[in-house]
Amino acid sequence: MNNRILLIDDDLIVRQTIVNVLTDAGYEVASAGDGLSGMRAYRHSRPDLVITDIIMPDQEGIQTLMEIHKVDPTAKVIAISGGGRTSNLRILDVARTMGASDTLAKPFDLEELLTVVRRWLPLDTDPPSNNQN
Questions:
Q1: Cα–Cα–Cα angle for 41, 110, 3, nearest 5°?
Q2: Cis peptide preceding 57, ω within 30 of 0
Q3: How far apart are CA 130 and CA 8, in angstroms?
Q4: CATH number given to 4-120
Q5: Lower CB count within 10 Å: N or C terminus of the chain?
């Protein structure tokens, strides 16, 4: 089953909220509070998708993204970032350049997050994209 997600974010409330939303949507979610522990979790579990914050202590998200792609160049990674809107756009552009599959600027709507996650990791229970009339 391809529904395992690793969430890496240093904000505990954000992490708990996203874990709850993704779990309720049918995903199996593990989480880490920084890039170093996130990389340990990634190497151990090889999730199907990673969502990583960019600005974090003990290893920021760009470095984490680069390390994930060293382990698996085809890894799907969604980069998220908070702070000022202008700085978000710049850092998220850098994340895209470094190989992020997609990006989201915080704060984002949880439905928007689910839409992006489903784009890269559809569940078996998601309806097929073609009409069967």
A1: 40
A2: no
A3: 33
A4: 3.40.50.2300
A5: C
Given this model, what pLDDT does residue 88 score? 57
Q: What is the pLDDT of residues 60-94, one digit of tens each?
A: 899 999 999 999 999 999 999 985 444 556 888 88
Give the number of residues written for the chain.
133
Q: Strand 77-81 relative to strand 28-32: parallel, antiparallel, unpaired?
A: unpaired
Angle, CA of 89, 26 and 38, to the nearest 5°: 50
Q: Provide the CB-side half-sphere exposure for 90 (13 A, CA).
A: 6
Task: Give the span between the Cα atoms of 95 and 1, in whole angstroms.
Answer: 28
3-state secondary structure the chain: CCCEEEEECCCHHHHHHHHHHHHHCCCEEEEECCHHHHHHHHHHHCCCEEEEECCCCCCCHHHHHHHHHHHCCCCCEEEEECCCHHHHHHHHHHHHHCCCCEEEECCCCHHHHHHHHHHHCCCCCCCCCCCCC
